[in-house]
Amino acid sequence: MPKEIAAIIVKNKNIRNGRPIISGTGITVHRIAIWYNLGHSPEEIVANLPHLTLTNVFAALTYYFQHKQEIGLEIKKENELAEMLESQFEKTSKAA
Question: What angle do CA 5, 6, 9 make, to 5 degrees?
């Protein structure tokens, strides 16, 4: 990874379970990847997260494309967890 991107995208086991994040924020690379894959442009992402810069978003996207399998697995696990929680909530709601 180029050193410029390594200065922007960092991992810290104490933040977001060690997922790669944009330095100085809690925004994960996989969150940026999700928005991008939903069709949001980098400019739209910055408009929705104004504490980020285009440089931040492009660094996150570069990391994503260089580590697509890793980030894709994170997204998959998050989706599976969300589905499980939704299912549990639905069961609890019906029982109440």
Answer: 80
Secondary structure (DSSP) of the chain: --HHHHHHEE--TTSGGG--EETTS--BHHHHHHHHHTT--HHHHHHHSTTS-HHHHHHHHHHHHHTHHHHHHHHHHHHHHHHHHHHHHHHHHHH-
Kindly report, residue by residue over 32-72, the tens digit of the pLDDT. Answer: 999 999 999 999 999 999 999 999 999 999 999 999 999 99
The reported pLDDT for the residue numbered 13 is: 92
Residue 26, domain extent:
3-95
Domain count, the chain: 1
What's the chain's average pLDDT? 91
